[in-house]
Design brief:
single chain, four-stranded antiparallel beta sheet
Length: 694
C-alpha cells in the first residue's frame, strides 16, 4: 500500500485501486478527514473535538460486488431487493454451468437460452437460492420486484411453447408472433410472449406463473426509430401494488393483446403499441388492461405507483396524436422521437394526465419515479444540442445528452430540469436505474460504451468517487440534491478491459438510495470487475460473460418507519409490535403508534390487546428533527378474528368493476382457505380472491 499526500494506492491483480481523500459527515456537517497508513493497515485520521458518540458517515460504500461464477456464458439484465436488503439478480444462461442451489425450483438447463434468478445474502458471499427459469425456447428476464413477504415476481420475454405455468393461471398457452432476433443471438423464430412468474420466498417453488400476450410479438420493443441503445428492445417493468396486485408495462405488436373494455384505451392504433396491465396476485385474472398508443410507434419502459396509487408510465413515441392533457407541459409532438410521461387512475379507467417531453431532435424517457409529495421525476436522453430542457437548475452541463426533470403530479409544470454529459447532444449513457430517496435526493445509474455508441469518458465525477478513471466502457453512478443545485456524488464503475453493460432490463435503488445493480461483466473471459473480498465469486469462470452484481450503500441519514406484525390474529391473543425502522445511530427518535381501535402508544415495541374482531389500520410515526427527513409514517393492516366465525368489512364498488376481497397480506403458500359461497370469485381457495359480481 502506498500513500501520496491524501491518496492511497492499493496494488491488485487487475491493476491499482486508487482511493482519494474521503468526505465525512456528522449531523449533516462535513468533518475534515484523511487516510492514515501504518504498514499495510489503513485507518482514518480525524480532527480533535469531533463527537465520538455520534455516527460518522464516510462516503458511499460498495457493500459487495461479485460475479455469478458461471462456467457457461451468461448475461446480466435486472436486479432488485427486498425489505431485508437482499439482492436478487436476473440474467440468462446459454447452457448448463450456471450455479444453482440445492432444492431450488429448477436446477436443470431447459435448452437454447434460459432465464436465471439468484438471491444473494446481504454480504454477497453466498447464494440463498439460485435457479433456472424457462422452457425449451429462449427466455430473458427484464424486470423483477419483491413484496413484503419476500415473494419474487419476474417479468420475462419468452419464446417457449412450454414456459412453466401454474394451475389456474390467466393464460397457459403460448400465443406466438413473428420471427425476431434479440441482441444478435437470442432467437424468437415463432415470436414472443411475456412470461410472468412468482417465486416462493425460499426459491424452491412457484407461487404462480402465466403467459401474457396476443398473436403479435409481446414484450419486445422492436420499433426501429425507438432503438437508440443496445438492448433497448428488452425493456419493460413490473411493480406491485399495496394489495400485491401485479402491474406490468411494456410494448406489443398484438392487435389482440388482452385488454378490458372499461380501460382508458381498449382499442389499438397502428404500429407498435404500449400496454399497461394489472393482474391479481396469483396471476389468474386480469383486473384491467389497456393500450397506450397513437398512430406511430410507442413503447412504455417504466411504471411507478404514486402516493395515492395513481399509476405513472413513461417511454418513447413517434406518434403525433397521443391523448395529452390540454394544460400539459408539452401538449404537442415536438418532432423526431419524443419522450412522454402519463398518469393513469388506479382502476385503469382514466388517463388523468399526459404530456410529451422532448425537443425537435431525438428524446426518450426511460424511467419515472415519484417522491413522498407525488412530484414526478423522469430520466432520459436527448440529442438536442441547445439548452432546451434546462430550467431552474443550479447544476447542469449545457446541452448534455442525459436529462433529469422534476414535474408536478398533474404534469403541467416543470419544477426544475437539468442535463449532463460531455458534448452538445452526445448521449453518453443507456439508463439503467433511478430513484428519489426519503430526503428527495435523486440517484441514477447507467452504462456507456461502444456497444451503444456512447462513452463514460469525461463525465463529471466527485472527489469521493469509487473510480476516477474510465476506459469509456463502464457504469456510471450519480446523485444530485433535491433542487438540482449540487452534484452530491458521481463515479465510474467497471474494469479496465471489459465493456460493462446490461443486455436490457431494469435495476433498482431502494428508497434509502442503496443501489442493486446487475451487470454483464467480464465479456471475453476477463475477470477485471472490481469485486470485493469474500464475494461469492471473484472470477468470471466462463469463456465469455458473467452476470455481475454490485450493491452500494450511500448511508442516507434518514428515518424510515417500518414494523413487523403477524398478518392475522385470533382473539384473545395479544399483538406484539416489532419496530423495524431504519434509524441513524445519531438519532434520538420518538414513536407514536395508533392501533386503529382508539388506543395508542409511545413505546418503541408495544404490545396491544384488541377487544373485538375486525380489520384495523395501524399507523407508526417515527420522528427526529436531526434526521434529514424529520419524520416518517407507515401504515399496515392487521386482521383480528374470533375463534369461530367472522364477517369482513363491506366493500363497495361500481357495476362492471371487480375488487379484491379478504386478506391481501397473507403468504401465498402455507395456509388453506375456503370461501363459501364461491359464486363470482376468481378462486375460492386463496386468501384474497377477486369478486366479479354480474
Amino acid at each position: 500500500i502506498k500513500q501520496n499526500d491524501s491518496i492511497i494506492i492499493i496494488p491488485t491483480t487487475v491493476g491499482d485501486l486508487t482511493l482519494k481523500t474521503p468526505r465525512a459527515f456528522q449531523n449533516n456537517i462535513e468533518i475534515p478527514i484523511r487516510y492514515k497508513v501504518k504498514k499495510n493497515n489503513i485507518s482514518f485520521d480525524l480532527p480533535e473535538g469531533y463527537d465520538k458518540n455520534s455516527e460518522l458517515f464516510i462516503d458511499p460504500d460498495i457493500m459487495f460486488c461479485s460475479y455469478s461464477g458461471a462456467t457457461t456464458d451468461n448475461w446480466g439484465y435486472t436486479a432488485t431487493y427486498d425489505r431485508e436488503g437482499f439482492l436478487y439478480t436476473g440474467g440468462n444462461s446459454f447452457g448448463m454451468g450456471y450455479p444453482t442451489t440445492l432444492g431450488a425450483y429448477d436446477t436443470i438447463f431447459n435448452g437454447n437460452v434460459d432465464a436465471v434468478v439468484s438471491k444473494y445474502d446481504t454480504t454477497g458471499s453466498y447464494l440463498i437460492y439460485s435457479t433456472y427459469l424457462g422452457g425449451s425456447g429462449y427466455e430473458v428476464p427484464i424486470s423483477m420486484v419483491t413484496n413484503d413477504l419476500n415473494e419474487l415476481y419476474v417479468l420475462t420475454i419468452t419464446g417457449s411453447s412450454n414456459y412453466p405455468y401454474s394451475t389456474g393461471c390467466y393464460d397457459s398457452t403460448f400465443n406466438g408472433g413473428t420471427n425476431y432476433t434479440l441482441t444478435y443471438v437470442i432467437l424468437y423464430p415463432n415470436g414472443s410472449d411475456l412470461g410472468i412468474t412468482a417465486f416462493s420466498p425460499d426459491g424452491t417453488g412457484l407461487i404462480s406463473s402465466t403467459y401474457l400476450g396476443g398473436t403479435g410479438n409481446d414484450g419486445l420493443n422492436a420499433a426501429t426509430p425507438l432503438l437508440h441503445n443496445y438492448a433497448d428492445d428488452a425493456r419493460g417493468e413490473i411493480i406491485l401494488g399495496r394489495n400485491n396486485e401485479v402491474y406490468i408495462a411494456g410494448s406489443t405488436y398484438s392487435n389482440d393483446f388482452p385488454v378490458t373494455a372499461n380501460s382508458f384505451q381498449p382499442t389499438p392504433s397502428l404500429g407498435q403499441k404500449g400496454f399497461v396491465t394489472c393482474l391479481d396476485r396469483y396471476l389468474s385474472q386480469i383486473i384491467w388492461s389497456s393500450y397506450f398508443d397513437g398512430g406511430g410507434h410507442d413503447a412504455i419502459y417504466s411504471i411507478f405507483l404514486g402516493r395515492h396509487d395513481d399509476i405513472y408510465i413513461a417511454g418513447g413515441t413517434t406518434s403525433n396524436d397521443l391523448s395529452t392533457s390540454s394544460n400539459a407541459i408539452m401538449p404537442n409532438f415536438q418532432g423526431n422521437v419524443d419522450g412522454f410521461v402519463a398518469r393513469i387512475s388506479n382502476n385503469g379507467a382514466f388517463l388523468n394526465a399526459c404530456t410529451y417531453f422532448g425537443t425537435p431532435q431525438y428524446d426518450q424517457v426511460f424511467f419515472v419515479r415519484t417522491d413522498k409529495y407525488d412530484n414526478v421525476y423522469i430520466y432520459g436522453q436527448s440529442n438536442n444540442t441547445t439548452n432546451l430542457l434546462v430550467q431552474n437548475a443550479g447544476w447542469y452541463i449545457p446541452s448534455g445528452g442525459q436529462f433529469i426533470t422534476k414535474l408536478n403530479k398533474t404534469l403541467n409544470t416543470i419544477q426544475w430540469s437539468t442535463r449532463f454529459g460531455t458534448s452538445p447532444g452526445f448521449i453518453n449513457l443507456s439508463p439503467s436505474a433511478l430513484t428519489v430517496d426519503y430526503c428527495n435526493n435523486i440517484y441514477l445509474s447507467g452504462w456507456g460504451g461502444s456497444l451503444n455508441q456512447g462513452s463514460t469518458n469525461g463525465l463529471p465525477i466527485t472527489s469521493d468517487a469509487f473510480q476516477t478513471t474510465t476506459d469509456g466502457n463502464d457504469f456510471y453512478f450519480l446523485s444530485i440534491d433535491q433542487d438540482a443545485t449540487t452534484l452530491l456524488f458521481a463515479s465510474y464503475f467497471g474494469g479496465n478491459i471489459s465493456m460493462e453493460h446490461v443486455d436490457g432490463g431494469t435495476s433498482r435503488f431502494d428508497r434509502l438510495g442503496r443501489l442493486y445493480q446487475s451487470i454483464c461483466a467480464g465479456c471475453g473471459s476477463n475477470s477485471d470487475l472490481p469485486t470485493t473480498p469474500g464475494a461469492w465469486s471473484n472470477t468470471n469462470n466462463s469463456f465469455n460473460c458473467n452476470n455481475g452484481v454490485v450493491k452500494i450503500d450511500f448511508h442516507l441519514p434518514a428515518i424510515v418507519a417500518d414494523f413487523i406484525i403477524p398478518n392475522i390474529v385470533c382473539l384473545p391473543d395479544s399483538v406484539h409490535f416489532v419496530n423495524n425502522s431504519h434509524i441513524p445511530t445519531t438519532s434520538n427518535p420518538t414513536f407514536h403508534w395508533d392501533f386503529g381501535d382508539g388506543f395508542s402508544s409511545n413505546l418503541k415495541n408495544p404490545t396491544h390487546y384488541y377487544s373485538n374482531a375486525g380489520v384495523y389500520t395501524i399507523t407508526l410515526i417515527v420522528s427526529d428533527i436531526t434526521s434529514c427527513n424529520g419524520s416518517d409514517t407507515i401504515q399496515k393492516i392487521i386482521t383480528v378474528l374470533n375463534n369461530t366465525i367472522d364477517t369482513l368489512s363491506d366493500i363497495m364498488f361500481c357495476l362492471g368493476q371487480s375488487a379484491n376481497i379478504g386478506i391481501t397480506s397473507l403468504p401465498a403458500q402455507g395456509l388453506t382457505y375456503l370461501w363459501t359461497p364461491s359464486d363470482y370469485l376468481s378462486n375460492p381457495n386463496i386468501s384474497d380472491p377477486i369478486a366479479n359480481p354480474p
